[in-house]
Amino acid sequence: MKYSAKIKGYIFVILSAIIFGCMPLMATKIYADGVNPLSLVLLRNFLSVPMLAVAALLTKKTLKIPLKSLPTVSVIGLLGCCITPLMLFASYIYIPSGVATVFHFVYPAVVLIINIIIQKKSDKGSILSVIICFIGICFFYNPNDPLDFKGASLALLSGVVYALYIIMLSRFKQKEISGFLLSFYISVSSSVVLLCTCAVIGNISLPQTAAGWGLSFFFAFVVNVGAVVLFQHGTALIGSQQSSILSTFEPITSVVIDALLLTKVLPSIPSLIGCILVILASILIVVFDIKKEKSS
To answer: What is the value of pTM for the model shown?
Structure first.
């Protein structure tokens, strides 16, 4: 693969992580307008469907995909855009978001383990990067925060499910299905499941104001049309292991936003150390990836 394509993949995944890092800030504003976590995940998928349809038609001139691809696309959608955010958002009910982040971001290690099992070989560079990345994520944990077993389990499971999503995404090779078209079907399948879930449990709450609806549309656009598509395309270019580590720019973004816009207090020393280690892990995975590309 040409270096230009690799670099494009790195940039796409990092941009995606930065957008995802802004998600808690936008979600907080939408929650304040009366929306609950389940409804927000539904709105994120449902409202993005027409936008993704237009984007897919403009790029591919069709919304058709091979029927044999539908089951795989549906499973990818359920794992990445439905089950993962539902579990993660639900964990926030029991534990602080900082604690949930530590458990959720176990997914780079899970991706590494699954890749080792599948390929039956280990990559020392990836192992080192994952270890440094995990240590860095642990620095975001505040020992004073309460730890609840149910919340920790939900956050941990969200990370495991997300790892499966990344693995499946990296192995999905259908050139006739563009990023927008793939995201369109992912959003459709996720919306159907979420609508059925809301109908069964009767737990849906929609925005109460025009501003709330506007922010919900913007949220759906930047997350499902922007971040999700960027991550999918980036993962296809650089692979699951590299994507999982580079996506840890997400908590760094959250730390910066929290310091600049929410608390307006400088990050703690442990958080800064965590940011430095995550950035170091990301640099290492890129360096090792380029070296491996040159030697192959």
So the answer is: 0.85
